[in-house]
Amino acid sequence: MRIGIAADHGGFELKNRLAEELRRANYEVADFGAYAFVPGDDYPDFVVPLAEAVARGDVGRGIALCGSGIGAGIAANKICGVRAGAVHDHFTARQGVEDDAMNVICIGGRTVGPSVAWDLVQTFLSAQFSGAERHQRRVAKVAALEHAPAAVH
Ligand code: RB5
């Protein structure tokens, strides 16, 4: 699977660690930046191109990093077809995919250590959407919001 990864300054170091682990595990990695540590850079500049690549299917799944994982998740979820969530625990890394079809995992470089982050990423990547009717129904209700009338936006 081709995996996309992106980070601002808050997730920059973690991005490099995770990209290294992913390549070692034989994943093809598409790096959407940042390509250098720039303390004032902005997470949407990296996370949005990653999210667009996930939505287009250019990458199978995405890993979005910032200081907390929150800004990255908010930005990624603005892109239609993206289901992103900030994850800190093993259970959620798996269940977010199985129940909610999460396709972008968001992790905080300032809140999660590299070993736990790598466990979260491996768990996320090996999980599959269950396809259970109730979960398909819920995911479809969320997807319908992407085409809702402007009044609700
Ligand atoms: C940047 O300082 C920080 O706000 C950002 O990386 C992220 O944590 C936002 O959610």
Describe the structure concisely for a colleague.
The protein is built from 6 helices and 5 strands, in the order E-H-E-H-E-H-E-H-E-H-H. It is of the alpha/beta class. It has one domain: Ribose 5-phosphate Isomerase B, Chain: A.
What's the topology here?
Layout: E1 2-7, H1 12-24, E2 28-31, H2 44-56, E3 61-66, H3 70-76, E4 84-86, H4 90-98, E5 104-108, H5 114-126, H6 133-144
Parallel strand pairs: 1-2, 1-3, 3-5, 4-5
Helix pairs in contact: 1-5, 2-3, 4-5
Bound molecules: D-ribose (RB5).
D-ribose is lined by residues 8, 10, 43, 66-68, 70-71.
Summary keywords:
binds D-ribose, alpha/beta, Ribose 5-phosphate Isomerase B, Chain: A, 5 strands, 153 residues
What does this protein structure show overall?
The structure is a single chain. Helix content is 44%, strand content 16%. With 153 residues, it is α/β, with parallel strands linked by helices. The protein has a single domain (2-145), classed as Sugar-phosphate isomerase, RpiB/LacA/LacB (Ribose 5-phosphate Isomerase B, Chain: A, 3-Layer(aba) Sandwich), CATH 3.40.1400.10. The protein has a 5-stranded parallel β-sheet, with helices on both faces. Helix 1 (12-24) crosses helix 5. The protein is globular. The N and C termini lie far apart (34 Å). The structure holds D-ribose (RB5). D-ribose (RB5) is lined by residues 8, 10, 43, 66-68, 70-71.
